[in-house]
Design a protein that fits this description.
Elements lengths: L2 H6 L1 H14 L10 H20 L8 E7 L5 E6 L2 H19 L15 H13 L4 E6 L3 H4 L2 H9 L5 H12 L2 E3 L2 E3 L12 H18 L3 E5 L2 E6 L2 H17 L11 E3 L9 E6 L4 E6 L1 H14 L8 H18 L6 H22 L3 H10 L4 H8 L5 H6 L1 H6 L2 H6 L5 H11 L1
């Protein structure tokens, strides 16, 4: 069966539809939602297939939106229409396995049975083998600067079906809608589309092959990559030569300000940091300080006293954030930091519960019910201290102990971390 027919087969298209539906997401420029997608495809699937076969199909422009980054800047994201997401996913499902055979063992992003966890483990292995000078190469606006002709030429070495090549190119040049205006896209790949991760891996596989040909040790996750060498001199040489290769051979732009030579304890990769453990005499991973600050900001936002939601709703949100964060960093060493996070969280939640008791009578009765002598309960209630004092007071800590809070459903970051480690 020809490649295009494999992409358009009922089985492959149905699988693509299910994946798009499962991932949900916003509507594109045509306003069709994922809930309306099934009915739309039922009515138009044969017309869609026919247009693609005759090379008459024209993808809709991608809807460009901006989402805030942690540093206060904005990241541009593209939202294809749900129909285009299905077609892109169908292409991805057939081409993905073809290119997967060519990809490097040390590339971990957006590939089956690979994860950022595996990239971190490999990085630690290099560090402990003595390759503890790190070359951190940052690609500037990668998705916006991809040279489309170079990318299509690389794809054509593997994909020999002209119809498929034509369809992929259409997705590269279909343009974007920005603030209601159409903007052409002569360079770049559609970040946010189902095909985008595969296209980025196809292009950056050329970087992987060059690194392997030079015998260099590296890890790459999408457009984030680290190279490991044994000396500062070697690191300087590698940074200069690989910058030249990336810019001249791949047509990409290296961010000179962010690309640098680093030591393990000053390196940030995929949210992780590294440190030398004096007990084991080995390098270990831990959440980078920026990742911890990001979590703390989220927890502070969810435990604002003036946020008028029920305690149950807060607990649900807190569970989602804490479990997701701990699961992501589960291989990192962080018990001490999690104890600190739990203490701060419990203190803030005690204040919220105290505030929800509302009046002095309710506060005294509640403290007494929780085992506090009445005189002690009255003393705290009428002390006129601020909320921070209340949250840290020994009386409230005894009444609303960590164990009681946990029984109420309030999550413990350390508890979940220990549970995850018993399951690994």
């Amino acid at each position: 069966m020809e490649l295009l027919e494999q992409i358009l087969s009922n089985q492959n298209m149905n699988q693509a539809y299910k994946r798009v539906y499962r991932n949900k997401g916003a509507s594109g420029v045509d306003g069709i939602t994922v809930e309306e997608l099934k009915e739309y495809l039922r009515e138009h699937k044969e017309e869609l297939r026919s247009q693609i076969r005759q090379r008459k199909y024209k993808p809709q422009p991608t809807l460009r939106v901006e989402i805030p980054k942690e540093n206060g800047k904005m990241r541009q994201l593209g939202i294809p229409t749900v129909v285009d997401r299905v077609v892109q996913q169908a292409i991805n499902q057939i081409l993905g396995p073809m290119f997967e055979k060519q990809f490097s063992e040390y590339s971990y992003g957006f590939r089956p049975k690979r994860s950022c966890e595996m990239a971190i483990i490999q990085a630690i292995e290099y560090l402990n083998d003595g390759y503890d000078w790190v070359v951190d190469i940052d690609l500037e606006r990668f998705f916006d600067t991809v040279h489309q002709d170079k990318l299509m030429r690389i794809i054509s070495y593997t994909v020999k079906d002209g119809d498929v090549i034509s369809l992929i190119r259409k997705y590269l040049v279909n343009g974007v809608m920005e603030d209601g205006k159409y903007v052409e896209t002569p360079v770049g790949t559609p970040q946010g589309g189902n095909l985008s991760p595969l296209l980025s891996n196809i292009l950056l596989n050329e970087l992987d092959k060059e690194l392997e040909a030079r015998g260099l040790r590296f890890v790459r996750y999408a457009d984030d990559s680290l190279i490991f060498v044994k000396s500062e001199k070697a690191a300087t040489r590698v940074l200069n030569s690989m910058t030249h290769f990336i810019e001249k051979k791949l047509g990409l732009k290296v961010n000179a300000e962010k690309s640098r030579i680093s030591r393990p304890n000053r390196t940030k990769f995929l949210g992780f940091g590294f440190y030398f453990d004096t007990n084991t005499k080995k390098y270990q991973s831990r959440p980078h300080k920026d990742s911890i600050k990001k979590l703390q900001r989220k927890l502070r936002k969810l435990t604002k006293r003036n946020w008028s939601v029920s305690l149950d709703e807060r607990i649900t949100k807190l569970n989602q954030v804490i479990r997701g964060w701990v699961n992501y960093f589960r291989i990192a060493k962080m018990k001490g930091k999690l104890v600190e996070i739990d203490q701060k969280l419990c203190s803030r939640l005690r204040v919220i519960i105290w505030k929800q008791w509302k009046n002095n009578g309710k506060r005294i009765r509640s403290l007494v019910q929780l085992g506090i002598p009445e005189e002690e309960a009255k003393g705290l209630t009428y002390c006129r201290k601020g909320y921070r004092y209340i949250g840290l007071s020994k009386v409230v800590q005894r009444a609303l102990s960590n164990k009681r809070l946990e029984q109420r459903g309030i999550p413990s970051a350390l508890g979940h971390y220990l549970k995850v480690h018993t399951e690994i």
